[in-house]
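Limitations
The structure tokens in this dataset are predictions for the assembled complex, not deposited experimental models. Users should treat interface geometry with appropriate caution, especially where small molecules or nucleic acid strands are included. An illustrative entry is reproduced here so readers can see what is and is not provided.
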Amino acid sequence: MATTADAASESAYRPPTVDVAELRRVLDGKYAEVRDLVRTNLAEHAAVLDEAETMSRAEFRERVKDLVVTMAATGQTGMGFPEEYGGGGDLGASIAAFETLAYGDLSVLVKVGVQFGLFGGAILMLGTKRHHDAYLEDVIAGRLMGCFAMTESGHGSNVQALGTTATYDSDRDEFVISTPDDVARKDYIGNAALHAHAAVVFAQLEVDGEGHGVHAFVVPIRRDGDLLPGIRVEDDGLKMGLNGVDNGRLWFDGVRVPRDNLLNRFADVTDEGCYQSPIENPDKRFFTMLGTLVQGRVCVGGAGINAAKVALTLAVRYAVRRRQFYATSPDEEELLLDYGLHQRRLLPLLAENYALHFAQEVAALRLHDVFSLDPDEDEDEKARRELESRAAGTKALGTWHATRAIQECREACGGAGYLAVNRFAALKADTDVFTTFEGDNHVLLQLVAKGLLTDYASDFEDLDQLGMVRFVAELALETVIERTAAHKLLERIKDVLPGGDDGWDQEAGLLDPNYQLAMLRFREEHTLSGVARRLKRGVDEGLNPGEVFSAAQDHVIAAARAHVERLVLEAFVDKTATLPDGDVKVALDLLCDLYALSTIERDRAWFMEHGRLTSARSKAITRGVNDLCRKVRPIAVDLVDAYAVPSELLRSPDLL
Amino acid sequence: MATTADAASESAYRPPTVDVAELRRVLDGKYAEVRDLVRTNLAEHAAVLDEAETMSRAEFRERVKDLVVTMAATGQTGMGFPEEYGGGGDLGASIAAFETLAYGDLSVLVKVGVQFGLFGGAILMLGTKRHHDAYLEDVIAGRLMGCFAMTESGHGSNVQALGTTATYDSDRDEFVISTPDDVARKDYIGNAALHAHAAVVFAQLEVDGEGHGVHAFVVPIRRDGDLLPGIRVEDDGLKMGLNGVDNGRLWFDGVRVPRDNLLNRFADVTDEGCYQSPIENPDKRFFTMLGTLVQGRVCVGGAGINAAKVALTLAVRYAVRRRQFYATSPDEEELLLDYGLHQRRLLPLLAENYALHFAQEVAALRLHDVFSLDPDEDEDEKARRELESRAAGTKALGTWHATRAIQECREACGGAGYLAVNRFAALKADTDVFTTFEGDNHVLLQLVAKGLLTDYASDFEDLDQLGMVRFVAELALETVIERTAAHKLLERIKDVLPGGDDGWDQEAGLLDPNYQLAMLRFREEHTLSGVARRLKRGVDEGLNPGEVFSAAQDHVIAAARAHVERLVLEAFVDKTATLPDGDVKVALDLLCDLYALSTIERDRAWFMEHGRLTSARSKAITRGVNDLCRKVRPIAVDLVDAYAVPSELLRSPDLL
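Predicted assembly:
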């Protein structure tokens, strides 16, 4: 229902009539069936949301483990594994299933991620047939529980420098795994404190006195629930959230495993006891190994985006039920969502959530395509690098979005939002770590920037910061600047803008996706070439490259963020372009405009500083956001209903 | 230690040598002794931080209650009450004590707030001598535990519309308290689920069939731990945090209390059964009553600011211990705080915390002054209104700061920040509700805006939104615009700027507090007059005032925020101006500049849109913020050490 104010300013506006089922089909996409299976499983076991609050930590951990095994039996958690081992043979389906799990208890989600994504995924991606034959069937069935022992207390982001060692003992043809000191203890390892029988351990491989960098080994750690000799475990104790997952620390005291336990897809020790690898450069080898684990990042990004949907569903529905203060009528208090500010607080987040949903769909699709190639085929290196970059960027923006959206939605539900029964407590606490695990978001955005600066050149991608800065400064600056040169870009963009050269500055174009994309592209390329110049200038002045980088770091991160935001908008625009004309398309176009304009609005200072917005047009964008919020208001409930979070999972007697 | 980059750009810069003890004296101010008493008490009982994680909820609630009583015995919690009842007779001391409690477990803080601030405070402020004589001694000693039963499920922000009734029964000379329906149940009431013997109940008073609006009554609810007849209680259950506080719901089924139990400072029922009040206008009466409870807001603001200090202490200390990635040296990984981005993430928050600390000091001082007047003396109405506005604004900004700072600090500590032992879990969960209790922050900022628009005119202050909009539009617009007229302001500001008319645009002046303040004042007054014009235009066009207000609501909030940020900067500038020359002053000047420039930077789009920043100067401000971060870096640890959070309270074996 349009309000009087709308009527005055926009007499022609009639909100679209959204067919929720149709919109849901658009959101669920190719894997609607998989998502529905997960919805059904979650609804069936919705009691776990209460149990998380009533059980002791010990009981809850067992409950979560049992649930993970129960869900495994439905096929839900093994979709990404080869069919010959009982998997579904469809990586894309596996991502869709995982994402949807975020509607429910997130300890279950994370435990699934640890068991099937990290532990199983490492065996699948880093191991070879002998490992697949030995383990995968049991992993997929949840009979062999495992953990992913990469992070150490001393090294989380810079895992290339971790301290655990794996020394090849040629006499016994075994590796000896050791924890040299307490900072090298494995830490925060899910499944380690209680349930894992085996660990994939990342350690510095040493053969014949020579170090070859980090490699992964399958290391049994428990038998019949008892720790094996040489293994020490400490519980990580109470965490902010995710207390259904048994995180712990691991120390290895000369633990011996057969040579076969090296996950040897990318490097091996031969029968003769010699190290060999098809990838000569140790940095490149390391990053190639890591690169195969990109799935984890895609999954976490999707989990964040989907957890935020629960919060948005609750806050939007509450806002059309809750009244407070007499505003437009002296007889009835006003609905929260009819306040302009409340719209401003929730609706751009809703638009962002949709945008990220479609960006995540692209990331998952690319992942599926890249990894569905025969793993031994000659791969398209650049496609992999671009995928890693996209995954990193989507994960960073998706998880920050989750933190922000859940917080805003909690506040928008007032005191009721603070009660555990109304779901925000667990949503906040459980998702909080998403921004820093599976890659700290800032480190991930640096990775994105590095890819952009080096144009995903694999030889340089593996360089450390010092090397990267020198590379950019000394070798490739001209290329980077040439590629991102603003004047060329302006030429390109002018062609797509309706008003040609003046297209930047015509109010009529605000809702033109070509204009919106041109703005984000300009920002991306201008920021990026600015970073390149700045790095070069610093090095030319003889400064320490590390300090040059440190001083420009906010600029580096801004460039990466600009890039990812452009990808996100592109995904949204591309999606709506495929839709048939009709009210669902109208609704999504509104949301896409809202996402685009609120993204530009948030950084409008930058656009003004760089001559792409006049004051007048900048203010027009703010007005545009307000106007779009008013237009989205009447369909807001439909938009969250299309997320189709099962009602069993919403709980929230005080909100709904 | 200045880095090479610093040396190149700022060869003259030598960081100040901060005497931490001296800086601590500046922060602790007048009430250093009180703060130290609380520090000592907290350190002695630091075990409660662990107990919060290990005890059952039921045990923990008892533990917290016992601690509150124990602390009461030290005099720490009764400082704001008159000496004749065992209090300290110093409201300012009471705020200082409360704030400092935020270094420890926050259930203890909130329970103290409920018992002494809300329950005791209501009796003190709304009651008269008979109530003081009857209750205060027991309240102060913690013998009479009570709760503050204002909020209802249906009404939290708009408490004027709450549903509980108190009907005067002249036959028995009693009030009958009733809960008409479930939305009128009292909800989220601290101390209600278990410990309160009595409640101060806010209810619609009806005498002889006539309604007189909301009044407060002392209602016994338990005797010897058992509920009294007619009282129904339900536990609010698990909350996101603060689980040491027993929040609950209350229903009253015809509960009778003697006439004397009306807290009758502002209204009474006479022996003859007639309602009488010295304040004729019922709105004004209601807001006058509420106004006396302003102390709660000042306390919560201070609690947020001080809780954030714990987070900042941890994150800054971790950042000078934790190394990750090789950056400036190939031999040693880089300290987190030597990364430009890490400085950007933490140091402006540190500066903001200092700024808010001094703003809070001003708010507490004003509170002390206003309330130390004889309560029956003719009061300065406008001073009270300004205090209420300042308290509301400081509370909003202080608690949002807490949420943001704690979040950023957690992320800056990575996975370690997620473990409960490292304190962020409780800090986040416990402080989360600060932004919405004791007044939802957005509602509070609206209150601030209303005060500004009506110039704290008490006759109009009490109007509801409709009335306010009409008032602004029809009666007082000219005054508001006159008062805030941009051209007059410009004249005034030009005089204080070093370059006169061109002062706005000279880079030299960036660190001049006159320039910084002029910028914030200009924004404040320009935004405010803009709101006034917009409201008038809407009403002139014949639109519904509520809709006009709704459409302008983001603008209203922006005006309030601009006002409060100006007050905060002013407080910081005023404080540093009082300091003797020396390194502590140099350090605080650096921080004050960082606060000022990062505040301007955050809203630089607005300043550009309104012709107060050129692109070049806007970029210079960003450079200035980066430069200040580098200058604050070497003293960052001293700055957090001056908070003097007792080491027993920091825990965090993984961080320190």
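Some entries come with short summary sentences. For this one: Residues 1-10 of chain B have pLDDT under 50 and may be disordered.
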